[in-house]
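User: Need the bound-state model for D-xylitol-5-phosphate:
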Amino acid sequence: MLISPSILSADFANLQSELDRIANADWAHVDVMDNHFVPNLTLGAPVVEALAKVSPIPLDAHLMIEDPDRWAPQYAEVGARSVTFHIEAASDPVTLARTLRSEGARASMALKPGTPFAPYEDLLPELDMVLVMTVEPGFGGQSFMADQMPKVRQVREAVRRLGGEVWIQVDGGVSAATIEQCADAGADVFVAGSAVYGAASAADAVDELRALAGK
Ligand code: DX5
Ligand code: ZN
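Assistant: Bound-state model below.
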């Protein structure tokens, strides 16, 4: 089980020290937004490269961008250990996932709340993780969508049938109040932005989330 705080809710003027605040986390989640796939703009590969050099923990890049077939591999090249592309934006997900793995990254597919899993189940052998979004991508601090839990269960069941090692990530509105239902549904990688960076102690919030998810 992994806790991956999202630096979207961190202080962008002090990202290195903001990463140090979550040194007890397993991953740091980096939200890349291009103002096209989502109506918000954050950062790109040069910033991920700089963060990878100073981060005490592996970077988990979540690419909310158009044309990931073209742009996603460079995030693996600059040091992201997990690279998540949105299936809604990918043209050739099999080739993309293989490219990411050949660059040494974990390959991950994200599903927006309105995107069903069943049409993409056949991709599981090419993937290391499936991200089930629990908010509409684009912004931190939104309300958790409990109606995505059946999809998490569906992915967990498919992974069990396949017998492989595919992790299931949830992202959006994950907090002390919602993480247990995610874990019950079968998620094992938990992204939390505002719940971690909005806390007085980010490290304590990480520990609390980990304890709740492991119950
Ligand atoms: C939303 C991002 C999330 C965001 C989560 O589009 O993908 O990673 O940072 O923030 P919270 O945890 O505040 O919902
Ligand atoms: Zn994210």
